[in-house]
UniProtKB/TrEMBL annotation:
Residue ranges crossing the lipid bilayer per the database entry: 444-462
First and last residue of the signal peptide: 1-20
Sorted UniProt keywords: Membrane, Signal, Transmembrane, Transmembrane helix
Protein name: Protein BatD
Domain of life: Bacteria
Any Pfam family hit: BatD
Length: 586
C-alpha cells in the first residue's frame, strides 16, 4: 500500500469523524434591531436530544415559541437530520444584551450553545407593506389611556381608563400585560372590571370596536407636573391574508403585536393659600358634617355615645376627622372608627364615623363646644367650613354617691350635702403586747449565716454567664440594635404629626430591627437583599412585602405630602410587620 493510499484512508476517516460530531448552535434572525421590532432565535442540532433548557430571556419578552421543527432526509444514501427550537422575542428596552447558553442532552452528553450578542436601537420605521401582517396589525390596533382631567387640584380625583381599539377588519384573540404603570406620586385604586364587553366607537374619526381593560382612580399627592407611566400589552392579533378558504372567504393569520398607551403628564395645581382655614386637614371634595349624641340626660357613671360623622364625595381616606373638645370632668375613651367608603370611577364616596364613649363621674351640666370641619371644594374653588351646634350634657345625681361635684356651668352654687363618707376611719385603738424575741439562734440568725456560703457558687455561675454574654460580640450587636429599634419606634410614635421627624425615626427603627434579626450593616441594605434574606429565614412573602412597603412609604414621604392618618397607618403597619417577622423568622 503506497503513501497515496494511506493519505486517502486518513482523510476518509477524518471526514467520517467530523460528520459524526454533534453540532448545537444558536442562530439569530438579526444581530441589530429596533425596540419596536421582533427577533427570532433558533437553537439547531444535527442529532436528536432530550431535556432542552432555553436561556433566560430576561431582557426580552417571549411573544412566540417554543416552536419545534424536525427535518430528516436521505440524499444519495446519506442521512441529514436537523431539529430546531425557535423563539420569537420582543426587546424590553434599548441597549446591548447577551443571550446566554442553551443546554441539551444528546446520547448522555450535555451540550451548550455559545452566547450571542444583540444590539437594540431606538424604534425604527417599519416598512409599510400592505401585505405584511405585522404592518396591518400595527395600523388596526391601538391602546389609548383616556384621562378625565389634565389639570386637577391637589387631592382631586383623576380617572384613567385604558381602552383597546380594534378595527372591524381584524380581531384579537388574547392579550397580556407587559409593563404595568406605577403611580408613585398618586394615591391610586383600580376599579375592578367583572365582564369585559365589546363596544362600538370611533378612533381618529373611523369606526372601531373597543374594550375597556383597566380603570384607575388617582388622587395626586403633590403639586407640579406628575407623570403617568405607560401601559404596554402583547396582543395576539388575527389579520386577514390574501388566501381564500374552500368557500371563498379570506383566511386569517395570527401575529403578535406590542401596543403601548403613551405616558401622560398631569399638571397638578396646589390648593390656594388665600382663605385657607387654620383647621384645614386636607379634605378636598363636597362633604357634610353631623355631630350627635345617643342621649343628652343621664345619671353619673352611666355612658353615652357621641358620634362625629363626615359624609360625601372626595378624598375620604386621606384626611383626619375633626376632634371634639370635652370638659375635663368627663371621662372619654378613644374613638371607635367605622368607615364605609367606596371608590367609583369618579372618586371616593361614603361615610366616615368616629364614636366616642363618654362616662360622666359627677352631677352637673357639661357643655360640649361645636365642632368645625373645613374642606376645599374644587367645583367652586373655595374653602368651606361646617360648624356643628353646641351640645349640653345634663348629668343627674348619682344615687350611689350623694356627694356632688362642682358643676361645669359657672356661677352656680351647690348645696353641701352631709354624708358618712369618712365613717371607715377608726377612732379607737386596740393595743396588744409584743412577745420578746432573741436574734441568736433565730431563723434570721441561721439564714444570715448560711446565705453567704450559698451566694459563692451562685456568684461563680453568674460570672461565667456574664463572661459568655460579653464575649458574644455579634449577639451584643443584635441586642443593641434591637434596643435601638424599640427606642426609635417609640420616638416615631411620639413624633406622629411631624412628618420629617416621624419618618426619619421610623426608618431608623426598621433598619436597626433588621440589624438585630439579620446581622447586616446599614450599608448592605437593599430591597432585593432584604427580601432574599427574609425569604431564606422562612418569612412569608406577604410579611416581606408588608415590611418593604413600609420602607418604601418612608422614602416616598420625603417627596409627597402626608396626613396624620397616613402616618398612623405606616406606624401600625411597621409594628404589625415587625411582630409578624418575629413569629415567623427561623
Amino acid at each position: 500500500m503506497n503513501l497515496k493510499t494511506h493519505i486517502t484512508l486518513i482523510l476518509l476517516l477524518i471526514s467520517v469523524s467530523i460528520s459524526a460530531q454533534v453540532q448545537f448552535e444558536a442562530k439569530l434572525s438579526k444581530n441589530k434591531l429596533g425596540v419596536n421590532e421582533r427577533l427570532r432565535i433558533d437553537f439547531e442540532m444535527n442529532q436528536d436530544g432530550d431535556n432542552f433548557v432555553p436561556p433566560d430571556f430576561s431582557d426580552f419578552t417571549v411573544v412566540g415559541g417554543p416552536n419545534t421543527s424536525v427535518s430528516n432526509t436521505w440524499i444519495n444514501g446519506k442521512r441529514s437530520f436537523k431539529k430546531t427550537y425557535s423563539y420569537f422575542l420582543a426587546p424590553k428596552r434599548v441597549g446591548k444584551f447577551t443571550i446566554k447558553q442553551a443546554v441539551i442532552e444528546i446520547d448522555g452528553e450535555v451540550y451548550k450553545t455559545f452566547p450571542v450578542n444583540v444590539e437594540v436601537t431606538p424604534a425604527v420605521e417599519l416598512p409599510k407593506d400592505p401585505n405584511d401582517p405585522d404592518y396591518v396589525a400595527s395600523q388596526n390596533i391601538h391602546l389609548v389611556a383616556e384621562v378625565s382631567k389634565t389639570s386637577p387640584y391637589l387631592n382631586e380625583p383623576v380617572t384613567v381608563v385604558y381602552k383597546l381599539y380594534v378595527s372591524p377588519s381584524t380581531g384579537v384573540s388574547n392579550w397580556r400585560e407587559i409593563d404595568n404603570p406605577k403611580y408613585s406620586d398618586f394615591w391610586s385604586q383600580n376599579i375592578p372590571i367583572k365582564n369585559i364587553s365589546v363596544q362600538n366607537g370611533q378612533f381618529n374619526g373611523e369606526e372601531y370596536r373597543f374594550v375597556e381593560l383597566r380603570k384607575t382612580v388617582l388622587y395626586p399627592q403633590k403639586s407640579g407636573e406628575l407623570k403617568i407611566e405607560p401601559l404596554s400589552l402583547d396582543v395576539t392579533v388575527e389579520v386577514p391574508t390574501n388566501r381564500r378558504d374552500f368557500f371563498g372567504g379570506r383566511m386569517m393569520t395570527q401575529v403578535n403585536q406590542r401596543v403601548t398607551a403613551g405616558g401622560r403628564t398631569i399638571k397638578v395645581k396646589p390648593l390656594p393659600e388665600q382663605g385657607k382655614p387654620e383647621n384645614f386637614t386636607g379634605a378636598v371634595g363636597d362633604f357634610d358634617l353631623v355631630v350627635s349624641t345617643s342621649k343628652n340626660q343621664l345619671n353619673a357613671t352611666e355612658s353615652l355615645q357621641l358620634t362625629v360623622e363626615v359624609s360625601g364625595k372626595g378624598n375620604l381616606k386621606l384626611f383626619e376627622l375633626p376632634k371634639p373638645k370635652f370638659p375635663s370632668a368627663l371621662e372619654v375613651y378613644d374613638p371607635v372608627k367605622n368607615d364605609q367608603v367606596n371608590t367609583a370611577l369618579d372618586g371616593m364616596y361614603g361615610t366616615r364615623i368616629e364614636n366616642y364613649t363618654i362616662v360622666p363621674q359627677f352631677k352637673g351640666k357639661y357643655p360640649i363646644p361645636g365642632i368645625s370641619f373645613s374642606y376645599f371644594d374644587p367645583k367652586t374653588e373655595q374653602y368651606k367650613t361646617i360648624t356643628s351646634n353646641e351640645m349640653l350634657i345634663d348629668v343627674l345625681e348619682d344615687p350611689n354617691n350623694p356627694i356632688t361635684a362642682t358643676p361645669a356651668t359657672p356661677n352656680l352654687k351647690q348645696p353641701v350635702v352631709a354624708s358618712n363618707a369618712f365613717a371607715y376611719i377608726k377612732t379607737t385603738t386596740k393595743l396588744e403586747p409584743l412577745e420578746k424575741s432573741y436574734f441568736f439562734r433565730s431563723k434570721v440568725f441561721w439564714a444570715s449565716l448560711i446565705a453567704p456560703l450559698l451566694a459563692i457558687p451562685l456568684a461563680m455561675v453568674f460570672r461565667r454567664r456574664r463572661e459568655t454574654y460579653l464575649a458574644d460580640e455579634s449577639g451584643n450587636k443584635r441586642r443593641a440594635a434591637d434596643r435601638l429599634a424599640k427606642k426609635f419606634l417609640g420616638s416615631a410614635k411620639k413624633s406622629l404629626g411631624n412628618k420629617e421627624v416621624f419618618y426619619e425615626a421610623l426608618e431608623r427603627a426598621l433598619h436597626n430591627y433588621l440589624k438585630a434579626k439579620l446581622g447586616i450593616e446599614t450599608s448592605e441594605f437593599t430591597k432585593d437583599k432584604i427580601e432574599s434574606l427574609l425569604t431564606e429565614r422562612e418569612v412569608s412573602n406577604e410579611t416581606v412585602n408588608s415590611f418593604l412597603n413600609v420602607l418604601e412609604s418612608c422614602e416616598l414621604a420625603r417627596y409627597a405630602p402626608v396626613t396624620n392618618v397616613m402616618m398612623q397607618q405606616d406606624y401600625d403597619n411597621a409594628a404589625t410587620a415587625i411582630s409578624a417577622i418575629d413569629k415567623q423568622i427561623r
